Amino acid sequence: METAEFIKTLDQQGQLMAAAAEQAGPDALVPTCPDWQVRDLLRHTGAVHRWATSYVVAGHTERRPLESGTGPDGEALLHWFREGHGLLVAALKTAPKDLECWTFLPAPSPLAFWARRQAHETVVHRADAESALGTGLSPLRPGFAADGVDELLRGFHARDRSQVRTDEPRVLRVRATDSGDVWTVRLSDGPPRTERDGEGPADCELSGPAEQLCLALWNRLPLSVLTVSVTTRSRACGRRSQPC
Fold this sequence. Notes:
Blueprint: H1 3-24, H2 38-58, H3 75-94, H4 110-133, H5 142-155, E1 170-176, E2 182-187, E3 193-195, E4 204-208, H6 210-217, E5 227-230
Parallel strand pairs: 1-4
Antiparallel strand pairs: 1-2, 2-3, 4-5
Helix pairs in contact: 1-3, 1-4, 2-3, 2-4, 5-6
């Protein structure tokens, strides 16, 4: 996807999140984030948006603390969230293509990184806000949702801090049935190694529409929405929530 598409999606998803939060109310519980109310969700996401904006606008080249959980309350909180979201969208739209600043995942450029990362960040928390509202989730385009799976598997879980480990090596296949994207995840006692292919045998396969894959892998939908296939040589894989 192009950077402009990520920025457009970020804009849309932030507006959807604000609308759901406003309708649910600040006291509503967030089922997908235990112990959180909508006010906590808005404060967290609003802080993340301002944190990301600081890199794009000021060009910070080192990581800076994220002061999550701060922000006003009541009617002022929703205004504060919308303001921060708007500032982030505007900063990304006007940033130079040769922007230089700190990032934490591989990307073609810092601008491409922050546009992509904040679009997916906002999608996940938009789903949280809609879970508090309880009226169902807004749909995601398959291509964008598949990119969210890719960012999670080949970005976040490629880092040393990933906790997805197995004592015995396993191969997990992840298949998006609508977009056609396929990932092969090689699990071991080290960080997972993920390739964009569907070649070779696998111990377990998770398959489903890209949107369901993305939200389930981010723990916003139960894994039961997906199809889990276990090979006869690895029935043990099907008896555990991890790695499958």
